[in-house]
Amino acid sequence: MLELLPPPPTDPLWDLTYEFGTDDRPERLNLVLGVYRDQTGTTPVMAAVREAEIRLAERSESKEYRGLSGNAAFNRSLLDLVLGPGPGGPADRAAAVQTVAGSGALRLLADLIWRTRPGTTVWVSDPAYVNHRPILEAAGLKVRPYGWRDAEGGFDTAGVLRELREARRDDVVLLQGCCHNPTGVDPLLDDWEALAESAVRGGWVPFVDLAYHGLGDGLDADLLATRMLAERVPEMLIAVSCSKNFGLYSDRVGCAIVLGASARSVRHAETALQNAARTLYSMPPEHGAAVVTTILEDEGLRAAWRAELDVMRGRIMANRADLVAHLSALGRTEQARSLARQKGMFSMLPLTPQQMLRLRRQYAVYGTTSGRINIAGIPANRIPRLAQGIAAVLDT
Length: 396
Ligand code: PLP
Hints:
By secondary structure, the chain is an alpha/beta fold. The N and C termini lie far apart (48 Å). It folds into two domains: 11-45 and 314-394, Alpha-Beta Complex (Aspartate Aminotransferase, domain 1); 65-297, 3-Layer(aba) Sandwich (Aspartate Aminotransferase, domain 2). The model has no long low-confidence stretch (mean pLDDT 95). The protein has helices spanning 12-21, 47-59, 72-83, 101-116, 132-138, 157-164, 189-202, 219-232, 263-280, 287-297, 299-329, 333-340, 353-363, 383-394; strands spanning 29-30, 94-99, 121-126, 142-147, 172-176, 205-210, 236-241, 254-259, 346-348, 365-366, 372-374. The structure holds pyridoxal-5'-phosphate. The site of pyridoxal-5'-phosphate has 12 residues, from helix 4. Pyridoxal-5'-phosphate (PLP) binds next to helix 4.
């Protein structure tokens, strides 16, 4: 049977990562994957996570099955974290289902859209996170791209709003809540307000992907747009990842949130998500969810986690500022200015695929062919040489 399989495409990001693994130049720098690295190049286990794991190891008595929605306390904690605590808010008309990380949440919500209306069009930014389109199409949905950046490299407010005027009622628009991957370009709060108005007027449903909250302007600031949308629109889908902001990449923890106009529709959506999970993997893994819940339910651990997250964010911001300063000093002010406006773990270098290849060949710097680099992956002492490399390939 397998002889019939035609050669399948491979994942370009992982291909680059494997190529990096075979590069024996000591100065090689991997800025391809979206993982936080500290100054030593390590992706650390956060201290709050380690402490939560110790507490869990001491007190856990059973590994019995959880329900189809996973860990109920985790789901409650994530609803509070994302939508804000307390009664009377949008969390009152929402349900959350634990998923296999952010990717699992995207897929489960895509399945929910398909189960609701198989012909639904999902609007996806161009450029988008590499896995958005494949996940949506794998669930059987139609994808339509919409622009994201203007000619100056900022968010294209007028262009995006103009395109979304063509969205039909019950179309779904995928938005990243903060720290847009791959561009680092986010709408300003006014732009988000205009997007909310467009959704209400046009009847399209926002589908917010939250993967980097806490790594842009701060945890609450990064959630502001999502919370505002949730207050304004009748229906909304949210895919949450705990991979980056808890450093739980390999534990695969996240959740799918649905907001509905009635308790009945939310209940139905929750059951549809459970049904989708049942046929994909039955139940999500418990460990990461238990760690996150232990942190969020304990005041001290929660404060420690937030402080650690602030340190990570500070390192990313300092790295970006330093790269901007070095590029400016090399006379690359235009490129420096556009990098300075970007936020979060990624930045998009204004380089062609050929220039990115040259950066890899001549400077051992690995970014994606589209120009995306992981700002959090640069050791501070490597920034001057990285800036020199960028400036040099810009001339070629
Ligand atoms: N969404 C965005 C925008 C991402 O960048 C990522 C990962 O890089 C994900 C979702 C999925 O994250 P994970 O499945 O590792 O939680």
